[in-house]
Write a structure and sequence with these properties.
The complex is a heterodimer of chains A (186) and B (182).
Chain A (H helix, E strand, L loop, with lengths): L4 H6 L6 H9 L4 H13 L1 H20 L9 H13 L4 H48 L3 H4 L9 H26 L7
Chain B lengths: L2 H8 L3 H24 L2 H18 L9 H20 L11 H10 L7 H11 L3 H12 L4 H8 L3 H19 L2 H5 L1
Classes of the chains: A mainly alpha (186), B mainly alpha (182).
The structure holds zinc ion (ZN).
The site of zinc ion has 7 residues of chain A, from helix 4.
């Protein structure tokens, strides 16, 4: 260390401190550089500052890390770019879309079949209620039209009819679940 | 800007332009990121992310700003977002903070057991973040004020002033304690 630390504590002359940096870096215009050097010959403070500046500059250049990129930097970047530009495989995308479509149809079909079953049950109940009601109001009327078998009550006929409706709807729903929708077509 | 890059961009050949941009800018982007993040691996990730963003945004580059100016702005934004992610532990003003300690350990990648070097790096950590960054970048860019000004998006005079104040402060801090106290 050649720096005069006491002179350094006083700092450089205000008129010269920027010039001292430029002189050190070699960017000071020649005429001004001569004047600054002349001043330094007589000024311990500016000499100390210039000396400390040189030491600091060398120490920083030496101390600061100068990291380099990894050798695989370009390869990694190419991978990232390729992922962004990749067109999805058409066959795989088509297969996935078809699976999604089938799943959707199956679930839609199942929902509609359930609705069909419930609607049929409701309709059966209403028709049954009318039959039972008519039998109570005018016994023998239904038999005279041949709607109820001889010796059978209207309630028994209604129960048999309702059972038949449920059996048909059950069969329709079972087909809908197993093989896709009966209600929607491609 | 390189004439070939400019030509490809003008003709809408963005992929060809990008192929020339990467070798031209990857190291400069990396050095700028390192001066901000102070960590080699983080700087490399930021450089990757920056160039991916450049690739995505290149079709929208209208040439109003210089290409370098535009790429460095993306680099600085990418690094700032990375710093924001670290925010809970970041305090550049507090040399005892986790971040400062992390930075001190991450930059100690040179020759081991050099107390003078370690001391200088510790003093550098005590400067305001913008002065530290200017100093790091100045030496990474082989003492080019122009390169630092372009990378930081600052006027040349501002960069010279930042570096002047940073070195002055470092000289004050580096003085032996008995002299400082005098
Ligand atoms: Zn003087």
């Amino acid at each position: 260390m050649n720096t005069d630390h006491f002179a350094l504590t006083l700092g450089p002359c205000a008129d010269y401190e920027f010039d001292l940096v430029e002189l050190h870096e070699g960017s000071l215009e020649a005429g001004r550089a001569g004047a600054v050097q002349h001043h330094m010959a007589h000024c311990a403070r500016c000499r100390a500052y210039a000396s400390a500046l040189g030491e600091l500059d060398a120490a920083l250049a030496d101390a600061l890390p100068r990291p380099a990129l990894s050798p695989d930097f370009d390869a990694r970047l190419r991978e990232q770019i390729a992922e962004l530009t990749q067109v999805p495989d058409r066959t795989a995308a088509l297969a996935a879309a078809e699976r999604e479509h089938a799943w959707l149809l199956q679930n839609l079909g199942r929902g509609l079949s359930w609705r069909t079953v419930l609607n049929a049950a409701a309709l059966g109940s209403v028709v049954g209620g009318v039959i039972v009601g008519l039998d109570a109001v005018a016994p023998g009327l239904l038999q005279s039209f041949g709607l109820v078998g001889a010796g059978m009550s209207a309630t028994l006929t209604f129960s048999i009819a309702l059972g038949a409706v449920f059996a048909v709807c059950g069969a329709v729903f079972a087909r809908g679940s197993a093989g896709g929708s009966l209600l929607l077509t491609d | 800007m390189d004439a070939a890059i400019e030509g490809h961009l003008a003709a809408g050949r963005h992929a060809r332009a990008f192929d020339l941009i990467v070798p031209e800018f990857r190291n400069r982007v990396f050095r700028l990121a390192f001066s901000i993040l102070k960590d080699r691996a983080a700087a490399e990730d930021a450089a990757q992310e920056t160039l991916v963003r450049v690739w995505k945004a290149l079709p929208g580059f209208d040439g109003r700003a210089a290409l370098g100016t535009w790429i460095y702005a993306i680099t600085r934004n990418t690094c700032l977002m990375e710093l924001r992610k670290r925010r809970p532990t970041v305090s550049f003003d507090d040399p005892d903070s986790t971040e400062a300690q992390h930075a001190a350990t991450s930059i100690a990648t040179g020759p081991a057991d050099d107390p003078e070097r370690d001391n200088l790096l510790r003093l550098l950590e005590m400067l305001p973040a913008n002065q530290q960054q200017a100093v790091r970048l100045f030496y990474l860019e082989d003492r080019s004020y122009d390169a630092v000004a372009e990378a930081l998006g600052m006027p040349l005079g501002t960069v010279k002033n930042l570096l002047f104040r940073a070195r002055k402060r470092l000289m004050e801090l580096a003085q032996p304690e008995e002299v400082q106290a005098a």
